[in-house]
Amino acid sequence: MMKRIGAVVAKEFREGLPAFIFFLFLFHTIALTKAVSLGDYSVTALRATAATVGALIVAKAILLVEALPLARLSSRRRVVQILWKTLLFAVVVLLFRFLEEIIELSSKKGGIVAATKVLLEEISWPIFGVLSLWILGGLLLYCLASELIVVLGPEKVKEIFFGARISDHGKGASHEPES
Predict the structure, then answer these.
(1) What DSSP letter does each residue of the chain carry, written as one string?
(2) Residue 45 and residue 49: Cα distance in Å, rounded?
(3) 23: burial class by Cβ within 10 Å (0-12, 13-18, 19+)?
């Protein structure tokens, strides 16, 4: 029983790790952008923790959305699939962004109801919009990269980015043009 649970956790970890790393970088970049745009140059543990937890939540949300039949359109055009998944992921991530703001404000304002009211009244919508565009662009890049990996295969992608396969070394395989 414990081996099965361990295997499921390991599988989830392997599948979610690329999304976690991608969104960890993206959310920390967004937190930095937000801090600088608001003139708050301090890096707080709450901000860093929120970005890290956010990356974990989004990685898990991506795994859940990917498992839904709704995530797979019947369209044969990959561009439609990429845009559809980007839209689905964007809805989940933007909901998270609202929740992140509400959680941060609720600690300052004394509750979720008060935080929601303050959020809707005092949020800088232009900054929220710009940060949302960063997220949308990041999601589009993530979906595009994921789809390319599916089409090309993980080994081919590794070969493209990191050179010849290990099994090709010693066999005279080279990706350099011959003269």
Answers:
(1) -HHHHHHHHHHHHHHHHHHHHHHHHHHHHHHHHHHHHTT-----HHHHHHHHHHHHHHHHHHHHHHHSGGG--S---HHHHHHHHHHHHHHHHHHHHHHHHHHHHHHHHTSHHHHHHHHHHH--HHHHHHHHHHHHHHHHHHHHHHHHHHHH-HHHHHHHHH-S-GGGTTTT---SPP-
(2) 6
(3) buried
Place of tokens 């010693």: 170
Q: At what angle do helices 78-109 and 125-152 cross, to 10 degrees?
A: 140
Q: According to the model, what pLDDT value does residue 178 have?
A: 46
Question: Please, which pLDDT band fits residue 172 given cuts at 50, 70 and 90?
Answer: very low
Residues 79-102 have pLDDT tens digits of 888 898 888 888 887 787 778 778
* Dihedral of the alpha carbons of 61, 67, 71, 72, in degrees to the nearest 10: 160
Separation of alpha carbons 27 and 79, rounded Å: 25
Length of the chain: 179
| pLDDT of residue 162 exceeding 50 | yes
User: What pTM was computed for the model?
Assistant: 0.70
